[in-house]
Amino acid sequence: MGQIYSWESEIQKVQNLFRRLLFQYWYFGQPKWDTGVSPPELLEFIQEHTCARAIDIGCGTGTNAITLAKAGWLVTGIDFAPRAIQLASRKIEEAGVRAELFVNDATKLRGISGPYDFALDIGCFHGIPKDGQSKYLQQLDRILAPNGFWLMYGFSKSDSQHAGPGLVEADFEHIVSHLTLVSRRDGFDDKRDRPSAWFLFQKR
Q1: Which among 69, 23, 33 has a CA at the least distance from the CA of 153?
Q2: Distance, CA of 8 to CA of 174 (rounded, Å)
Q3: What spatial distance separates the first Cα and last Cα of the chain, rounded to whole Å?
Q4: pLDDT for 60-69, tens place per residue?
């Protein structure tokens, strides 16, 4: 049994490494998700809540970190692709705003202590393997302030065997065991031809 677990662990490490390299490669071009425009759901949240501390998990090239910083939030951005953080640093400097940026793993958040009043995740959580999602939620619980919010966008799918990123109903049940669902807006991602949804959760 121990030998089987060891092989599974090694396979997972290789898959994670490949995923990191793939994202790094994409950021040398123009990733489909990097529109350079903050979504209305984020702008709405900013308008309705007082500025405080925010963390952008999977910040990419920093578009939303810049939007939050311009609105007066104290922002931390993390991404596991060094190239993304390099581009984000450049964009933030050009925008004339301040934000802390780190190459980091959303399932570990090493050196990130919080507390944060707001966490943003656009397309990160839905692509993390199931065991990693549990670790992500544990880290989120650790860094979120009491009554802090988590705004998350992800693809939806009906079957956990479906290839590619996406959330199934069991994932939602897992999340609400950690956080309270405030709102959910279902939609459709035309670029990827996938059902999707925006979720706003709050720490109990």
Answers
A1: 33
A2: 23
A3: 38
A4: 999 999 999 9
